[in-house]
Design brief:
Blueprint: H1 3-8, E1 19-21, E2 26-29, E3 34-39, E4 42-43, E5 51-52, H2 55-60
Antiparallel strand pairs: 1-2, 2-3, 3-4, 3-5
Organism: Undibacterium hunanense
Protein name: UPF0434 protein H8L32_12640
InterPro entries: Trm112-like
Length: about 60
């Protein structure tokens, strides 16, 4: 994932910061507790496509 893209991307719901997790290929919004998948270096930023984080993921900040 391009670092310049990460600098400008924000959560589509709360406009908060996103954290990229390379191993899981996801952009994480801890504010909304959602994980947005990245496919072929393209972030899928639709709320209905996001995965809800588990309480363990939130508390551990994977």
């Amino acid at each position: 994932m391009d670092a310049r893209l990460l600098d400008v991307l924000v959560c589509p719901l709360c406009k908060g910061p996103l954290v990229y997790h390379k191993a899981s290929q996801e952009l994480i919004c801890y504010g909304d507790r959602l994980a947005f998948q990245v496919r072929d270096d393209i972030p899928i930023m639709w709320a209905d496509q996001a995965r809800a984080l588990t309480p363990e993921e939130v508390s551990a900040r994977v």
